[in-house]
Specification:
The complex is a heterodimer of chains A (248) and B (189). Chain A is of the alpha+beta class and 248 residues long. Helix content of chain A is 44%, strand content 22%. In chain A, the strands form two sheets. A four-stranded antiparallel β-sheet of chain A has the order 1-2-3-6, with helices on one face. In chain A, strands 5-4-7-8 form a four-stranded antiparallel β-sheet, with no helix packed on it. In chain A, helix 1 crosses helix 2 and helix 1 packs parallel to helix 3. In chain B, 43% of the residues are buried. Chain B starts with a helix and ends with a helix. Chain B is mainly alpha-helical. Chain B is built from ten helices and no strands. The chains are: A alpha+beta (248), B mainly alpha (189). At the A-B interface, helix 1, helix 3, helix 4, helix 5 and helix 7 of A face helix 2, helix 3, helix 4, helix 5 and helix 7 of B.
Chain lengths: 248, 189
Amino acid sequence: MSGTYSHQDIEDLLGAFALDAVDDDERDIVEAHLAGCPRCRAEVERHRETAALLAQGGERAPEGVWDRIAEALDEAPPALDLAPVARRTIGLRVAAATMAVAAAAALFLGVALGHHDSHRLDNIDKLAQAIQEANVNSAAFAALSDPAAEQVKLASADGKSSARVVRLPDGTGYLVPGTLAPLPAGRVYQLWAVRSDAKISLGVLGASPGVSAFRMSGPVSAYAVTDEAAGGVATTSNQPVVVGFTKA
Amino acid sequence: MPTDDIRDASDAILVVAIGRYRQEALAEAYRRHAGAVFALSRRLLADRTLAEEVVQEVFLRLWNRPERFDPDRGSLRSFLLAQAHGRSVDLLRSEVSRRRREQRDARDRAEAEYDIEHAVVDLAVADEVRGAMAVLPPGERAAIELAYFGGHTYREVATLLDEPEGTVKSRIRSGLRRLRTVIVEAGIA
């Protein structure tokens, strides 16, 4: 059936689709299309954001409903997928009975439920990491515009590779990679602070580094990034890939 | 995460904490968004009890499947509202279809027509929404109101407004785009 729908036909439906205003068969056709079309998916998300703004009323959360939700949570063993229960609008007493059955079943289905739970946790970890990266990025860009911060440009001898280090007076610092070519498997970049004769490791950056945070107080004469075996090293005698000297 | 920090946390961080079974994070998400979820569901369903069930369902689903929220694809509020809207419309349509079957059986056509008329007239929307919607040409505004707040399909809207289906379909889309330009990009919201 979707064969009779051109891309234009699907696009024409996106507004109505985003408002749940299409028939079931058209909804199926649009959903199938969205799975493979990021542009249309983005349009639907935009329509939903707009609709969400229209929906905003100053209404307070309904009294009593939170207590029922909290009660349902207390009854639920954490690893269980309660979605099938939640999807139906059934009384809580029935829900509780269903959960008891599910809990008993979980004793026998531990593997399957555990698998589901690990899928959940994997995705949550990815989300947490994305937030952390976004936070590090914005903190680093804020530091770059702070006149009190120490800023050092790191470069390779041939000038092809580069990075920047920015460090705030409180010792919080960030490495912002410019051009650092991705390393082969088994190799990682590592960041160092050079102080008189000592090289102090500021962290292992991975094979294709993003913005990374570090802490280092006291004077530093140079920053360097080296190419090391995966896992990093305690001390290094490798030549730096990029290096930059502070004004101090 | 200490409880004190929960109040300052972004929605995305709340979802991470919910994913790690932190009840107080779900409570905070509820505090922030349940009012809007409830208001939308009640407007669609015109029934407080059913709307409360939708709220409960939406937040339990967030507890059970937080990984379905993708911050790259939109805000937590629009994610929750889209779920509430979809669920409310499901309930509404199953209720409408049940009622229609009963009415057909009873051969009571007059009442069915009254209901549809009543539904159109009774779609009063809140003042602030009216303000935003006022930027739209009347045809686009009526199509969006009937679809989003009335829970009608675009085909039903076409019947209600006595317009071609294709016209209604494209008015919903162009109206949403126009609203976005006005509300979001002009920074009114």
